[in-house]
Amino acid sequence: MERRCARRCKTARVPRIRETAHNRERAMPSVCKAHVRLPQLRPRADRPIRSLASTSRATRDALAAEPYNGAQPPTRCARLAPQGGTVLESFQLPARRAHSARVLMPRLLAVLSLACCVLLGTPALAGAETRMTDIVCGVTAEERGLTNAELPDIEAAQAIVMDPNGTVYFERDADTQTKIASITKVMTAIVALENADLSTTITVNHAAATVGESTAHLQEGDTLTLETALRALLIPSGNDAAMAIATTVGAIIDPASTDPYATFIQAMNDKAAELGMDATFTNPHGLDFGDWVGDMHASARDVVTMFSYAMKNDTFREIDGSGDNTITVTGADGAEREVTFKVRNDILGQEGNVGGKTGTTYDAGTCFVGTFQRDGKEVYVVVLGCSDNDSRFSNTLTLANWYYEHLKTVPLFESSKLTPDGDPLIARASDTDWTDKTVDVTVADANVTASYFDLEGDVSLKVDTVDFSGDVQRGDHAGTLALCQGETELASVELVAAEEVRAPSPLEWLLVQFDRFTRFFTGEPGAAETEVIATTPKA
Fold first, then answer.
1. % of the chain exceeding 90 in pLDDT
2. pTM (predicted TM-score)
């Protein structure tokens, strides 16, 4: 059955697709081939389907709205292994809604934004942006008086930067509960490591082998050690490994349980509560669509809390930072085989990155949590809700670079003068036994440094010296020197006497008292005042 083209083509007719239980015709104008503008999406036999994690959100919307080879688009698109046939990572597409506000409004806003940029002569941002509502060291950027140039330019919906001490340097909607996709596997690893030995045999059952999506290429009946399974879990983000670990370790957590899988999920939530997280887990892998839809959520703050805890475990840290993409498993037939998979962390080993975990679903967007080390300083970065694979890593690096650019390491002081022995002169401390003598003061350790985040505020030098009396020996305690940022002491060092000064003799003492008596009437001080020589260091 045919009907005329909706664009009033006089010659062409458009075949009507017969409605069946498997294929239901959309209520939309039909056009002939001459008027079709969108390209057909035909996967080539020699090239796997491209991962939606590496495409822009606009592209994903287009894929959701356009026909796919003349049929309805799939609810999930998958990237295949180079050998073909094995899903490496998938991305869920929503049901087609040609005129939904979710699709049209972002496009309309983007067009309006671009038009404004053109009219005003300002460059348009490619998704990234700075926000005065972003929080820097506990205070909004606006309240701190920061400029756009001082803020990280990122597109992530939620983000956080935190050091191992729990100091948070940057936040964007860090407490908003959202989907975190495969970052869930960090908690899976934590629970497994704390409840089973690394030599524990993990068995891959049917449910694990057939979970699909992101995989470590495990097969039903495979056995492997927990250590190997954790590599299959964290490096390629294997959903099959997650399921196998959950079932096996769940039986160890509660041998009497009739549902080891459920036992493991409960252990994940118990651990989250123990760590102070507001997160809820409903599976060990992070899938949030199809059969895995559920009330699973976490925030950026939850993620960094969980990840920083995991990084304290040496085994987790080693595996998470490994680029080894080959493991050995034992098949159901007893024969060993090597399995090779993809390393998901595209920036591993770059710009100080020593580990991380990816996550991707349609609802979660593309996500990442990573660890960086530069000059002995470690920091954790979380980005959630990015538009594609490239942006999640570029956003991560932007935040890491922003942190290290504003992290200053300086000596505790500066001094332009030296003692006769060549030590830095910090102060000349008062000697109360005399009216005109002081004691040169230096530091016990001139190599002490302090690190601070310069956007949090200026630093200041605090020098507290003692008043000397009696015989003074070289190295005697002379007080403390500290570098402070606001009310926070960054670092301190002991001050010591840099010279010997004897106490006055009895006759000298009488002369000193007479001198002080006369000074009383002239208004002069009865002893030399302490003079601070050192100054605040410059970044």
1. 71
2. 0.74
